[in-house]
Specification:
There is one protein chain. The chain has 157 residues and is α+β, with helices and mostly antiparallel strands. It folds into 3 domains: 37 residues, no CATH class; 45 residues, no CATH class; 59 residues, no CATH class. Strand 4 and strand 5 form a beta hairpin.
């Protein structure tokens, strides 16, 4: 039947107060349009199948878009996407999110050991043994993170 409506509404007694009333569906009629608040919507089975197939296709596309390789390729093509923290870190080249989190916790621990109101500095050691991170009242970087960022920016070619 090619001209059957996709949806119909069963029109039941609009004055019914008890939905369990056995006579509620006596003399039920139907219409393509909703007439009463009590009308019950029915959708053709083939329409439901079409909608299920459409949802399945969208879920598949969503899974593909969440794949890191596809996501990266789409971003390079300029296709916008909403990224999770893990996806963003993956695209930035950070494959070990747990290690990054531990490093952040370590740095927070070091900052918590400092004296309030005294600036932080990260600089090359005078003895040539890498960097030193410590507090110094003559510096105004509020956090160890800021001091590290400043040292990295200073050392960039």
């Amino acid at each position: 039947m090619h001209n059957a409506p996709e949806r119909i509404y069963l029109q039941i007694d609009p004055d019914a107060t008890d939905p369990t009333d056995e006579f509620l569906f006596d003399g039920v009629t139907w219409c393509q349009d909703k007439v009463n608040e009590t009308d019950v919507e029915y959708v053709r089975a083939d329409e439901i199948d079409r909608l299920r197939a459409e949802v399945a296709e969208l879920l598949h596309e969503q899974a593909v878009l969440r794949d890191p390789v596809s996501l990266h390729a789409n971003l390079l093509r300029g296709i916008p996407a909403t990224l999770t923290k893990e996806q963003l870190l993956h695209l930035a080249g950070c494959t070990d999110y747990d290690a990054l989190k531990k490093d952040s916790e370590r740095l927070s621990f070091i900052e918590a050991q400092g004296s309030p109101g005294i600036g932080w500095i990260a600089r090359h050691s005078f003895t040539g043994r890498g960097y030193r991170l410590h507090q110094d009242p003559s510096f105004n970087t509020a956090t160890a993170r800021e001091a590290i960022d400043a040292a990295r920016a200073k050392d960039k070619p």
